[in-house]
Design brief:
The chain is of the alpha+beta class. The protein has one domain: Multidrug-efflux Transporter 1 Regulator Bmrr, Chain A (Alpha-Beta Barrel). Helices cover 21% and strands 28% of the residues. The protein is built from 3 helices and 10 strands. It starts with a helix and ends with a strand. It comes from Nicotiana attenuata (Coyote tobacco).
Amino acid sequence: MAMSSLKNALIIILSAITIACSTDLCKAIESPGYTVVHSESDFEIRRYRESVWMTAPVNEISFEKATRDGFHRLFQFIQGANLNFSRIYMTKPVLTSIVPGAGPLHSSAYFVKLYLPVKFQTDPPLPLPELNLQPDPWTSHCIAVRKFSGFARDGNIVKEAQKLALSLSRSPWANSTASTSEYAYSIARYNSPFRIIGRVNEVWVDVTGSRASGCESNLVAAY
């Protein structure tokens, strides 16, 4: 597909999302459930519950290009490009997980993910084969999260991940980055690209428990 055609297709897709979010449906957009285990001024530790996501693997140097490509395929899936012909409500966030490697962004591949609504958690629709998507079941596990505003770009995601790593190094979760995780970190985006102010993004890093909490049930808040 020519670059101009791809841009036009993405504009149509993102416009559809914006229109949907101008209705009451936007208020009911589902997100994966979690409990806050530990909270500080610049990060928090969350225990995410078991869940299933749909994942688009992408081989690409650019985080921005990878996210656009993966989301384009995921959007086709939720619009009915699956063997069940199911229409699936948009959820949030759009999550891009970055596989460590040797590139300009210290990455060699990406996995763009969309949380499946509760209705489809136990029996996810099968995507059309040409979309190259796959279900990604999560066990309950702990994630360190740092919020940041603005747009998530190639030029700032590494810096935000480094800030989270520095915060963790000064906390009870120092040296607790999960060694079993295949991802260096993930970027969660919660807003339409058409939203200019009040944007919310997050850096996610899998962590193991600490002696301070064990990432267990001394809980602060549940969502």
